[in-house]
């Protein structure tokens, strides 16, 4: 028997349930020439622009990667999204995995080209693109870290907010050789209008407190706040999140909070104003997962609530991926018969914050796929969801949520 929310979402896909308060899902047109199983590995949406990363696209070589730009096309009978650009870096090279992570702010896109997860040497970089007045996109900067630093591979994660960008490094969680185990860093770049370029202004670290996890990985940025994940990875111990705050008078960043006991392998984060959402896919005794909301008051960050699905599932990895904007939150988790080899389903839970501050699960986005929700982003009521399958090209869905 199909569950009610699955019936609902199947109806939405075929346009049968346009009821107020329910999500309406639309699949974005996939590029005809895409030769990749990674379309949707990263997504970002801001106003009328959506970007989709395809880090395994064969462009100038195998796994060179590409990013696809979609723009909202208003008009009768309904609003639609059209593919308007394909972004490729200069220089372009094989095995760059361009598009592994993307960030979007206004008319700028920041793209990670990240070849490996951990350690080692590499040519990783982050590339800035800007849309010009004639709606074409141009690469305006290639961002790199400081040379000869012990911090892992550059561009593990990227974030962008107006004229400020953040790029993290991976660290190295080498458990076989403690001498080669070290944390990463976060680089902050500021835009300089004259000339039109980006300047590296800060390098943020955690004093190598490795017992709380290795700083690096997912990074988020909004206004004066920056948060970065610090996982213990293979140690399977709770990690942490470091929050930094920018002081406009001194133009320096300082550590604003160290949030501990975050239980996930890859810790997923999102930040909007003074609210931080942290995914904990390994949390709880049954590994069903959770997502924790932190709020900053005048002086400090405090945990305000923990979000859980209405029906938690053992080993459900709820919190594997999260997105936050305004009063809405999206959280990926598994659903349906996790003990069986078939009928495993991954869904996106939609939460909304009430005026008094509490959060309520509103609906579930479900297309009946184990690969759904690999990446998420949210702009008001519009969400962008990536689906990445291992044996075929991925997809991306736009949904208007309640």
Summarize the SSE layout with pairings.
Blueprint: H1 4-13, E1 24-27, E2 39-46, E3 49-54, E4 66-73, E5 80-87, E6 98-105, E7 108-113, E8 125-131, E9 137-143, E10 154-161, E11 164-169, E12 186-192, E13 197-204, E14 214-222, E15 225-231, E16 239-247, E17 252-262, E18 269-272, E19 275-280, E20 290-296, E21 301-307, E22 322-325, E23 328-335, E24 345-353, E25 359-369, E26 372-379, E27 382-387, E28 395-400
Antiparallel strand pairs: 1-28, 2-3, 3-4, 4-5, 6-7, 7-8, 8-9, 10-11, 11-12, 12-13, 14-15, 15-16, 16-17, 18-19, 19-20, 20-21, 22-23, 23-24, 24-25, 26-27, 27-28
* CATH class term: Mainly Beta
Oligomerization category of the chains in this entry:
single chain
Tell me, what's the shape?
Answer: globular
Strand content: over 45%
Q: Rg, please?
A: 20 Å
Order of SSEs = HEEEEEEEEEEEEEEEEEEEEEEEEEEEE
Side-by-side strand order of the widest sheet: 1-28-27-26
Number of helices: 1
Largest sheet: 4 strands, antiparallel
CATH architecture label name: 7 Propeller
Find the count of extended strands (DSSP E, 2+ residues).
Answer: 28
Could you characterize what this model shows?
It is a single chain. The protein is mainly β. It has one helix at residues 4-13; strands spanning 24-27, 39-46, 49-54, 66-73, 80-87, 98-105, 108-113, 125-131, 137-143, 154-161, 164-169, 186-192, 197-204, 214-222, 225-231, 239-247, 252-262, 269-272, 275-280, 290-296, 301-307, 322-325, 328-335, 345-353, 359-369, 372-379, 382-387, 395-400. The strands form 7 sheets. Strands 1-28-27-26 form a 4-stranded antiparallel beta sheet. Strand 14 and strand 15 form a beta hairpin. The longest helix has 10 residues, at 4-13. It starts with a helix and ends with a strand. Mean pLDDT is 87; it is low at 1-21.
